[in-house]
Known about the structure:
27 strands; disordered N terminus; single chain; five-stranded antiparallel beta sheet; alpha+beta
Amino acid sequence: MAGGSDVATPESVGRQQFDELLDPSFDATHYAHELVRRRDTSLELKADKISSIMNDLCTTRDALDARLRATVLGTHEQILEQVLGVASVDVTLEQVEDQVREIKQYMHALRTKIRVPYEQALEYTNQARNLQLATQHVRATSKFMQLVRRLGVQIPEGEGRPDYALAALTLVDIERLVASSDLCGIDVVDRALAMEVAPRRQQTMDEANEMLIGGMRRQHQSDVGSGLQILFNLGVISNAVDTRIQASITALHTLVAGRIDPRALHAGVREHNARATAIDGRDMVGIDSILWTRLEDMIDAVLSSGLEVRVLERVLQRKRDVLRVDARTDGMRVDASYLDVVAAQLGNRVLALWWALAVDTITAEIRSACDESSVVRQILTNSYPRLVQLFLPRLEPLLAARLGGVISVRNAESSVASVLAADGEIGYASDFDLAQSPNVQYSDWGMRVLWTRLLSVFEAEYVSKAASRMDDSVTRCFPAPPPAGLVDAQSTWSQRHNTKRDELTAVNTVPNRKLVASVVRSVGTELEMAKSDARLCAMVARAAARAIASFVAVTKDQLASVMSNPQVVDPCAASAHPLTRSVIGLINCVEALRVGVAELCQPNEQPLTASAQAVLCTCRDELQTFIDAQSDVLLSAADRAISSALLDVEDSSLWSRAEHALQWLQTQVLEPLDARPSRRIHLMTDSYLTLFVHTVCATMPLTEATKLRLASELPQLEFACSQAASTVGVRVTGDAYKSVRQMRPLLFMSACDLAQVLGDKSAEWSSVPELDLLNHVVCRVATEGAGVVPHELLECSRREWLGCVAGSAFVESTSVCRNSEMQQLWDTRDLSVSCRAVIHECLNRMLKHKLADDLSKPQSALRESACRSLITEAQSTFLEFNFVPTKLQTQKFVSHVGDKGDIISSSTDPLWIRTTLPTSRAVLVPTVYTQWQNPRMLPILWTWPVVIEKLVGGADLMTAGLVVPKSGLPVLTKGSLVAVCAHGEMAARAVGVMAVDTREIREVVGAKGKVVLVVHTYKDWLWEAGSKDEPPEIPVDSVEEAGVEESAAVEDTTAGVDTTDAIEGAIEELSVQDAAESESTAAVHVTPAEMDALLMTSLKQVMATVLDEKHTGEQLPIAASTLFSTYMLPNAPRNAELDIKKSSYKKLAKFLKAMEKHGLLGLKDIRGETHIKSLNWKHADLSTYTPYAKAKRVEKAEGAPAVKTQKGNMIGLEELLRVPPALRPLFDDVNGEPESGYMTRQQARSVLETYIKKHNLVDTRNPRNIRVDHLVCDGLLTKDEIAKLTFYPRDKLQQRLQDRMTLCTRLTIPGSPSVVRQGRPPFVDILCEKKMGNKVVTRAIGLEVYGVDPAMLAKELRVACASSTSVDPIPGKKTVTVLVQGHQVKIMTKLLHARGLPADLLKVTDKSGKSKK
């Protein structure tokens, strides 16, 4: 069959094809056509293809029939089984139906048995319920009738006096009863309600309203309270109060409506002027007069109505009903007032609600008038302060919260605060008050509502106009630039008249002084008009500040324009520039403005408000800052020119350039300048003098011609600086001035004399700085012989070195020195210390170089006889001397401090020094080289290695640095030679002479003073002149046992370190030797000079560690006594006690004035007492000062008792009562009097209660009353009371008993027996008063009673207050007074409290008029 391969066989036909053929919607025709179309889509269908398709269809049909037959046969058996299952289910269902029928029969029988008893019980229950309802109705009706009868009694129909308050309660009970019990429809109830209850209720309401309205009108709080009580009892108080508020607002609206209508105002003006009779029209008025008059009438009406509402609120606040408030207010707290009840229901307090409505009424009227007439708006805006004064102080009783005015609840406050949050420039701080009404503040709720809804608009417009007027005054000071034609005309005129263009510009740039004064007058006028209102005054002040800021901005721009020409501020120019005076003129204008603003800040009869003063003070400070900045430009230009001229050491014309710059500074700047930069000029002149001293000291070579030139220029510079300083009222004094005057004789000294001056450092040369003096010595030594100067050690020029000495670094590189040793000297934080180190090293190298040359070429050899004499002297003087040198040489030497002597040396090392020691005798001193060869030749003292380093640096050995062996210190006398070794070694590190006897050294730890004056040390110049060998190792065991006690070693270590720290700080003073001597101040006797040094050191320590520059700005000014007692005393050097009386100053004020003159601090007198106003942390002394470690001061003042402040040591006071003779029978009746005769108040109460119980004196009707008997009458009642009274209140009787008893006090002082005194304890009077002008003293009187020693207290006050004290007897009394200088109330109170006196025994009286410390 053709095409058979494309036709599906029966086997290939799947279930899907059968499913398609079995589909109910199967269409055979369509299926055939579709099959034909899929087989061949050509137009010509061949017959064989059609036959093939038909065969396929037949085959498919047969296969389908076979499949259907097989399916039917397969499911037939399943269908039969299902039919059998259905039959069995039918049988089961029939059985279930039978059982259900049986159950229904049983349930019907049971229901029949239960129904009859249930119906009977239900019938009985209904009958009982009906009976109960009937009973309740009968009871409610009976209670209703009782209440009606009670109501009739409370409000009688006849002449009886009605009790409306109780009647209101009865009416409320009736209403509740009728509402809770359904009594409507009962004839007797309806008739009683209509004929008796309703009329009396209306009568009660009318009476309550009449009492409320009349009481408010008459300000009678009793009537208002009665009416409110009735309304509260009726439960309608909130509605009644709301009605009264609305009625008041309605009446107020009727009064103010149309009062300030523009047409009515004009009509009033015409009516008033028509009645005018004066010929000149004096009695005629304008619209503003009528407007203010009617506004006053409106405010009076508001005040009258507001006072009525205020009375209502006050009574509401005072009235309370504790018994019934719980039920009336739905669970409100029991102690709530009527006002709380009303506010909870109305949403705010009564007066606050009324005030908000009243303000809305007035605001609507005023705004309506302003909208209709611009004249009215302009009048109110221009006279805004008067508008504020119109409301205040008239409405002060309503607006002042502190006087019981408008107070809002919290939710109302938050709502108003949200409205007021729009204002961001001026807040609502509590200090915004009003001068005419100090009790009213803008923070009060009533005032804020008034301002927000009414006054804010007028205030903003008024401030805007005030700012415009002040801005106009500023604009007039700086007119617009001239047109181009006028500028050309000015140029032509200047060329024709040979005038410089800059001179015309100078004239046109500076404002007129009168115009500047007009700015100040404008600001003062505006502030004067607004100062009655703090808020308005603050806003006007801010506007004034903006106007002044604009003035400064224009001035700043003009200054920048003028100073853009560098010749204007060129001090070195041949002639002064004309525009320099313009710069000064502009600065003077700002100064005039600052002076005017400062005068406005000064308090007068009616000063400005605090906020306005703060704004003006800030503005004044900004003006001062601007003036200082602009003046500083001119002064800095002059300063740079003068300093540059003075630094040019090699320029011979330096003085002419400096003189020209100084003259420019004086004539062009200081003389025409109104501001007086006194401090800056003082610092500048000091710096010039100091800088010139630097220049002179660094001049090299110093020839005779140079000496003469410098000697003549020194007085010229001194005179020029004096002239410049006198222009601003400053005198040129101080150390710089003295150093210039002392520098002239130093120029003509030799190098040796200069070295002697440096060693002596006498008072004659004390003003010349040590750094400059050292520099001068170095340059003089280098001039007289070969040497190297400091700037040659550094890679810099002389000018750069002078800038370094003056305090400014000249290089940024960290490596500036040629060798590592010098670099270590330079690497320090303090520049002055670096300079000093470089100069010292330079001087050391010069002297060592010269000494080395001398030693290498000895002047003469020591003869043999001299050698034998030397050896014999050494063997007889020193212990175990076995070293016999040969070929000795000798030479003379002079040290850098002037010490002279002989050096005896071998071929390699120096062995001996013969010199005059501090013991004033010539001795033979071995060097360390000699001691190393003979370790036992000198007695040995041991110290710690850290101390050895300080000895090598030049310090002497202090007592605290000793190490004590177990056997103790060797017996040595003062002046004996001694070797100093490190602990555990025998090789000497230093040789010196004893300063004290060792027998005087009782202890080492904490000891003070020097023990060895060092003459020669390892690594000094003498050691470097030898072979420079290191110390040999010589064990202690091979020579001597030198054990140290363990505890002593630990303590001595600490002592040695402390000594090291002290020496370390002393090295950086004027010289090492002087610093070491100042450190060894004796504790027993201190000279005035030593005490002066201690005071100076303590002040520097305080400034460097406690009152530093970062944290002390807010603490200044500090009282002088506070500085001494709180800061200087605790920070004194270790084991040193400051006593101002032992110094040369004798008084603290004199010492502080000396320090002010020295430049360390500035003083200021405040109310007659000296205060420290400033501290100069940049002083040269502080720059070279290194703070020492603060010692823990655990020791107390001698004789000061250890006063404890615990409660157990406080003085005890107990109040007691004593039985008088009149009350003794009453106490004897109950045996109530104790053996001591004294009792407490509680015991007295118990005695009276016992007496009352014993005689049954309690009133049975009122237990609070006591029946009086004969003993009570005799002892406690007066004659009139005995005749009138039968009963007396218990509490008053107890008080009467205690009042009749004698009051006593038991005084218990710790350590003493108790003492009972009659009456109350006496006070200790602390009196602060003025004596002899402004001198303030503090006294304490009455201390002996409480066991306080006046002398001991005076001593403690003298130390604590740093003031003089005295103990003086009081004439005619057996007591004394303790007096202390100054206002010391706080300190005296603290000391007395520490001695056990409680605060209630101290009576403080301050008559000094000063603030307490």
